Structures are given as structure tokens and as C-alpha cells.
Structure prediction request, 690 residues.
Amino acid sequence: MTIMSLAHYLQMLERCWHQQDGLKIAALLSLRYDQAANLAQENPTGMVMRFVKPPLDELVIAHLKCMHYLLMGSFTYAYKQQSVLVQNLTKIIQTQKEENWFLPVMYTTCLDLRILAQGAEKEQMSVNNKPGEILEKAAECLMGCFRVCAADNRSSEESTKRIGMLNLVNQLFKVYSKINKLHLCKPLIRAIESSPFKESFSLSQQITYRYYVGRKAMFDSDYNAANEYLTYAFENCHKDSRKNKRLILFYLVPVKMLLGYMPSRKVLEKYDVQQFWDLVQAVSQGNLKLFDELMEKHEQFFIKCGIYLIVDKLKIIAYRNLFRKVYLILNTHQIPVDALQTALVSLGQTDVDTDETECIVANLIYEGKIKGYISHQHRKVVVSKQNPFPSLTSLT
Amino acid sequence: MSNIVGTCTTKCPAEEIKMRERERLLHPLEVQSSVERQRCPKADVNRVVKCHVRCAAGQSLQKPTNLRTVPALLDTINYLLDSVITNTKFPQNVIYDFICDRLMAVRQDVVVQNLVSLACIRILQSVVTFHAYAAFCFYKEPISKFDPKLNNKHLQETLKKLLKIYSESDAAESNKRTSFESIYLLHNLGNAEAMRHALQLPKNLRERSELKLSLEISLSFVKRNYLRACRLMEKLPLLLEAVASLHFPRINEDVAIVMSKAYRNNDYPLNNLLETNNLALSERKLLRYSKYQL
Prediction:
């Protein structure tokens, strides 16, 4: 492909502006545009002003500068230019009434802004004293766009900018989860859930959205909601997006397990998440010793994904499965607490006494995972004659 | 944005002393002892402490002469938590209210000047300790004398600020950091957010016994293994145990609900249960702590 001259590029932009071709402008202002590297300029102002009229000129100037700094290898400076670009863009979309053709430009530039902010954040890690500062600023910038879109409630359905909300919300999710401020997502979720366009957002955006909302629900210990959102994301995610499917499974697998659905080895292998296979075995066999070992071995991985707490909760399921085994071995409806305690101790829970064993059993009964009652006087667990260990999936 | 740097080197800015003398807004703890009974008592410059004012329109909190320097703030803290606290002439709740208000002003000075130094860590640690102990000591006071909700709010706010400063500064004073990270964990027992925060701390911090123990307590609590949680609490250092023990009423309630379902034939009377589970917030225990009162 021949190298495009700057003049040609600028003319193209100006033409697209008049044709209201948002997609084309978006492509031209993207950092991934194949000619972008050739067009970078440190001082493009004069040239741009000759070809491009306001208000688009400001965007183009910032973009060319941004490219320049990026080629120089500085994310920080590039990010600053991109941030100027998005702020100017916010002003442009604010003045555009009853039209939303410019939204694709917003999507692209906001995406680039987030990626540059992430790069800048890494670059500043050694110098900067406050981690997360740049990403927070970027989030403010994105919020600026979001407000304009959300406030556009007078336009007709075809031309409303509110349709752009979900894209921004997803960007914001990504930023907030990077800086550990997921609680800031709450008003955004509310805005989307109450939006009349809830169903008309594009499928890809819906999947991303449900992934984040599902993850958040998991963090908030709302496992049924998490299951619903993450399942939707997993089932609708394109089958070639293996990386994304794998990411979803990091959360979906423990959530499902807690709800009583154990994944098969085949599925885990298919998506390259075998880390969970040992865990599945430990939990379904009630092998507490293996469970503790796995918690220690994969601690860093679990913490990094944010699933440590939910995986830790799986221990309750492991208890249930172990006690069920004891029940099957003894083949009696009156299980001595001592027997359960012996089982616990033999699997590495050496500091557990009969009182604590009762406490664990009591909780399982309370949750409906065991049908029966404890006779403290006789130190026995009396289980129901019918289905004393109901299947976990029947509980919720 | 450059930070404002305070220039006041005393516990209370001169301007405020004058104003409060004129408006008769001095606290009995702040006046000269000889003139206490006069209509317009004079301030005792050694005892008067800057009081807390809300941000409001037309009021600038940013005047450097009204903001205390770091040494002055440390001085204030020491005065409040060494001298005032041991004052026995006034009822305890009056002392508490006084200190609480003045500590709020201290925090305000810290925030307005955006201090993040080591000294600031020391200041906030003292404030946290004060509120943590107060929460325990005044647990049984009626609401008219002590509001646990407000106290908890101060505690939580200060803790969060402190934790933020820890994470932004180098791991200096990390010895104490584990204690305060543990307080946060125990104060918010079973809270997922708090636990995630603790899990994300550097491993060398997490491996320290207090923090490890606190995390295990919180995890046991979430898994409803209350017995284990309570047993582990007894291994905590005193201040931490005090913070954790404030959850006993909540734990008791949960235990009662679980037990009522699990023990059907009434052979496990509730009192008995609470005792074996060591859950009763017994007078005995309270007494043991009250010896260490503030």
C-alpha cells in the first residue's frame, strides 16, 4: 500500500464529516489505523487548520500529536493528548442534537483512551506516588461522555445517543475493576438496567456487560445472579473467542460449583482451565486435605482473579460430601459425632473437636444440605430416612 | 495543585481562641481553672484545642494560620490522649465528646493539608486506637451518652484514610500496619470487601500472625463456623479482641437461628450453647477489659 500524504488524509476526514460517516472517521482516528504511523506529527496545527474545519480540527490535531508521542514511546504524553481529544469530542456530541452518527468515533477514541491510560499507568508505576491516579482521570473523562449520552432523552429512538451508554459503561467497568473501585459501577448498572434500550444494545456489548455485572454479583456474594449473568455471557460469547470464554469460566466454574454443579474434566480441558480439576475432585470427594493443599498452592492465582473467597466457601460443600461418605459407610441414620470428627481429623483438620464438628453439621442442617437434627445429649446426628443428603442443585 | 501548608504551631489558632472567648464558646476543659465561674471565662492557652467546624459556604478552612503544623498536631494528639483522657473531674462521656470533636478537627487539618507523612500515619493510628477502645468501653452506655453508630463512622473513616496512606507510602512502620489492617478486618467482620483488601496485601504482611489470624476469623465467620471464629478471637492481642468482641451480639443472634433449626429436641438449651461456644459477652470479660480503659 502506498504511503498516504497528510493532505490526502485530512481531506478524507473533512469529506467524511460532511457525509456524516461516523464509522469512517472512527477508523481514521483510531490508533490501529494502518497508516497512522506515517501521519504522526508533533506540530500538526497549521496543516490541519488548512484542511479541516472546526470542530473536527481539534480532534485531528490531538490525534496526530498522540500518534507522535506514541511513536516516541511515551504512553504518558500520548495519553494526555488522547484525553484532550475525548474532552473535545464530549463537547462535539453535546452540541449534536437529534443525531448519533458520531457515536462510533466516541467508541473508538474512548477505547483508545482507556488503553493508553493503562499504558501510562504502567509507565508511571515506578515514578508516580499515587497508583491509579491516571486511570481515575481517564474514568472521569469517560464519565463526561457518559453523562452526555445518558442525558440525551429528548431525541427520538433512532437518533438517541443513549444507545451509546453501554459501550461506555463497559469501558468504565474495565477501568474501575483495574483500580479496585467496583462500587462505583453501581449507579452505572442502575442506569443500564432502567434503560428502555436494555435489549437493543449490541450482543457483544451485552456479553461484556453481563460478564462484569456477573463478576460483581459474585463479589457481592449474590451467587444466583452471578450464575445467571455469567451463564448468559458464556453461552453467547463467540466460540472463537476462547480467551474470553476462559476468562468467564474463571468465575462461572466456582459459582456453579457452589450451587452444586460440578464441571466435567472435558469442559475444563477444552477451555484450558485445568487448575479447577483438582479442586472439583477435592470438593466432590470431600477430600479436605487436598482442598487445603490446593488453597495454599493456588493461593496467588485465586487472589489475583478475586475468587479466593468463593473458593474458600466451597469447603462447606466438601464437608457435606465427606459427611455423606461417613453416612454411607456406617449405613445408619444415627451418626455419632465422633465418627464425623474422626473423619475430619484424618483429613488434616487436626484441631477440630466434637463441638466444632457439631457446629459444622449444624450449619449444614441450617442450610438444608443435610436433613436431620443433632442430639447433643447423645452426641449423635440423626438424619432423615428419606434422602438425608439432598442433591445440592435441588436447594436453590 | 499545590498543597496548603499550615503555620499554626499551637494546639489552637490565636484567632479561634479570641473568637471563642468572645462568644463564650469555650469548653469547661479549656478555661483557666481560677476563673471558671466568671461570666466570660478566659482561655487557658495550654488547654484550649482547635474545635471542629463544618465546611460551609463563606467559610474558608484553608487559611494557613488556622492550620496546624505536623509537630503541633502531634502535640495536640499527645495532649488529648495522654492528659485529657485521664482527667477524672468530668464524667467520661463529656471527656469522650470533647476528645472526639477535637480529633475530628485534627483529621480535618490532616485532610486539608493533604498530609501523607509518617507523622500523619502516627496521628491517624492514635485516632483509630481511640475510637476502637471507645467503642468497646462505652458499649453498655445508653445512647444519650454514647452513640456507637457515630463512633463507628469515625472509626471506619479514619481506618480507610489510614489504609490508603499505608498503600501509598513505603512499607515504613509496617510493624504497626498489620495491627491496623487487622482492626479494619475485624471491625468489618465477614465483609467481602475488607477481606479482599487484606488478601491483596503483600505476602510478607499477610503472613504476620495477627493479620493471618484476623483473616482466618473473618473467613470462619463467613462460613458460619462461629465456634472457630470465637475461639480464634481469644488468641488475638487485647485491642483486636476488643474490636472483634463487639460482634458478639450479632454472632449470638446468628448462632441462635442456626441452632434452633439444627437441634430439634430441645436438649440443647440456648444458655448452655452460648456458654460452650464461648459466645456470651460476659460481664467477666468486660471487666477484664475495662481495667485497660483508654
Q: What stands out?
A: The mean pLDDT of chain A is 89. The radius of gyration of chain A is 28 Å. The longest strand of chain A covers residues 372-375. Chain A has two domains: 1-201, 282-394.
